[in-house]
Structures are given as C-alpha cells and as structure tokens.
C-alpha cells in the first residue's frame, strides 16, 4: 500500500447542493435539477468505491427543507421513492450496504417501508456503506440522542444521568459509523446547513463551485487529492 492509498478518506460526507441553480442555468424547473442530482448519487458511489472510500454519507433532505414549496418537497419525496425502488435491485449486485439517518418517523408509511426493506436486504453487504440523510438536522439528531439517553436512564431508575461523549456518539443516528474524514459541499456555499455538526468536529472540509449534478468522478478525485495533502493534527503541535 502506498502512502497515498493509506491516506484515502475512509468516510466522505457530501452536501449535495446546487441542483436548483444547475436547472435554472439550463432554463429547466428546479425539480429537473433534483432528478439529475439523484442520478448522480449512484455514479459517485461507484467512483468512491473505486478510489478506496468505504463510507459515503449524502445529505438528501434537511429538517429545514420542508420550508420549500409543496411541489418541490413532493418531487423530492417522489424521487426518494423511485430511487429506493430502482436502486434496490442494483445494491445487491453492487454489494452496497445502505443506511438512513435523520428523523424518519414523519415520512409517509410507504417510504418508511421501502427504507426498512432497503436497510434489511443490504445489511450483510460488504461493499460501500452508503448513508442517506433524509429529514436530517444535526441539532435535531443531538436532541433526539439526549432524549433517548434520558429515557433509558429513567427506565433503569438512574437519575440524574452522567452523560459522556461516547454516550452521545452511541445514541446518534450514525452510531457505529466512523466520523467522516472529509466533508464536501458542492455549489459554492460555505456553510454546514445543520449537517453532522458533532461528527464533523475534526473532518477536513472541501468546497467546490461545481453544482451537484456536475460533480463527477474527476471532481471526486480532486477532492480526495486535496484531502490527501492535508495535515490532520488533531490539536497536536
Ligand atoms: C440541493 O440542491 C438539493 C436539496 C437541498 C434537496 P438545492 O435544491 O439546494 O439547489 P440550490 O441550492 O437551490 O441551487
Ligand atoms: C443543504 O442544502 C441541504 C441539502 C443538501 C439536503 P440547502 O440548499 O438546503 O442549504 P441552505 O438553505 O442553502 O443553507
Ligand atoms: Mg441549496
């Protein structure tokens, strides 16, 4: 193994931004950008695996995205539906393991069922671990984690509960998944938008002006190359 392959990020978290602007530039409705963006996820998964990346977490829908028009939210939910069904047949072939993070409880019953099916049928796959963040917000995730800790403590009669970092990590939706090494945000915005704030504490950030539907294998390679040249000090001198 060369020095470079050793340093390939194990886990990449992506904020797939810019679908709307991508569409607008082409005179298309915003929803066309979402269709193009959804198609890109599969390609990026394949490219990531070829580069030696083991986990990719995609931000697909934030807890704030409900503020968009009913039409746009409906289209996004429809895309999740189609995508989940369409991808179900391929994940077995690609050996991909799929997990979901976010507050899924408010999603429609059919979507929840598809999500459960996909997680169950792919749980023993040993290839890329793909994580989809739907109705995900970092603050919401931390609040749910703390409430879960409290509820368990109350059940076992422990009060007040002494919370540790490990307990919080273990009760987040990402429990068991290593923290991302690299966070990529497409389309020029320089913010986290409530994404994985706990898990990204020591991750390297990479921002590109490229819109998500145009973010291809080459763009991923550029991001990984930038990462490989970073010096991760973790507070050490
Ligand atoms: C990202 O693209 C997709 C979601 C947030 C669901 P946007 O829809 O945010 O695209 P822009 O930022 O408006 O261009
Ligand atoms: C973040 O993008 C959420 C997703 C990519 C799913 P937004 O486009 O919603 O973020 P803001 O509103 O520009 O911060
Ligand atoms: Mg956006």
Structure description:
There is one protein chain. This protein has 237 residues and is of the alpha/beta class. It is built from eight helices and six strands. Strand 3 (97-101), helix 5 (109-122) and strand 4 (129-136) form a beta-alpha-beta unit. The longest helix is centred in the middle third of the chain and has 25 residues, at 70-94. The two termini are 27 Å apart. It binds 3-methylbut-3-enyl trihydrogen diphosphate (2 copies) and magnesium ion.
Name a few traits of the molecule.
237 residues, alpha/beta, six-stranded parallel β-sheet, 8 helices, globular, binds 3-methylbut-3-enyl trihydrogen diphosphate, binds magnesium ion
User: Which secondary-structure class do the elements indicate?
Assistant: alpha/beta
Percentage of residues in strands: 5-15%
Order of SSEs: HEHHEHEHEHHEEH
Distance between the termini: 27 Å
Q: Which residues sit in consecutive blocks of at least 5 with pLDDT less than 50? A: none
Looking across the biggest beta sheet, what order are the strands in?
3-4-2-1-5-6
- Helix content bin: 40-55%
- The whole-number mean of residue pLDDT values reads 95
> So how many helices?
8
Backbone CA Rg: 18 Å
Count of distinct strands? 6
- List the ions, cofactors and other small molecules found in this model: 3-methylbut-3-enyl trihydrogen diphosphate, magnesium ion
> Which sheet architecture does the biggest sheet show?
6 strands, parallel
Query: Tell me, what's the shape?
Result: globular
Short description:
The chain has 237 residues and is α/β, with parallel strands linked by helices.
């Amino acid at each position: 193994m060369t020095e470079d392959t050793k340093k390939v990020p194990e886990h990449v978290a992506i904020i797939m931004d810019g679908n709307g602007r991508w569409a607008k530039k082409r005179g298309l409705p915003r929803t066309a950008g979402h269709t193009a963006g959804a198609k890109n996820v599969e390609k990026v998964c394949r490219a990531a695996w070829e580069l030696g990346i083991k986990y990719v977490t995609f931000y697909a829908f934030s807890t704030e995205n409900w503020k968009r028009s009913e039409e746009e939210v409906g289209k996004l939910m429809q895309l999740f539906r189609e995508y989940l069904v369409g991808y179900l047949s391929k994940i077995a072939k690609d050996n991909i393991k799929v997990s979901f993070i976010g507050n899924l409880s408010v999603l429609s019953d059919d979507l929840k069922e598809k999500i459960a099916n996909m997680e169950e049928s792919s749980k023993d796959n040993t290839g890329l671990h793909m994580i989809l963040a739907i109705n995900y917000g970092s603050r919401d995730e931390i609040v749910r984690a703390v409430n879960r800790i409290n509820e368990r403590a109350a059940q076992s009669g422990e009060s007040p509960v002494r919370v540790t970092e490990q307990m919080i990590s273990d009760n987040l939706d990402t429990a068991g998944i290593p923290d991302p090494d690299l966070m990529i945000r497409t389309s020029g915005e320089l913010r986290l938008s409530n994404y994985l704030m706990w898990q990204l504490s020591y991750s390297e950030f990479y921002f590109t002006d490229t819109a998500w539907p145009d973010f291809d294998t080459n763009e991923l390679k550029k991001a990984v190359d930038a990462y490989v040249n970073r010096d991760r000090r973790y507070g050490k001198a």
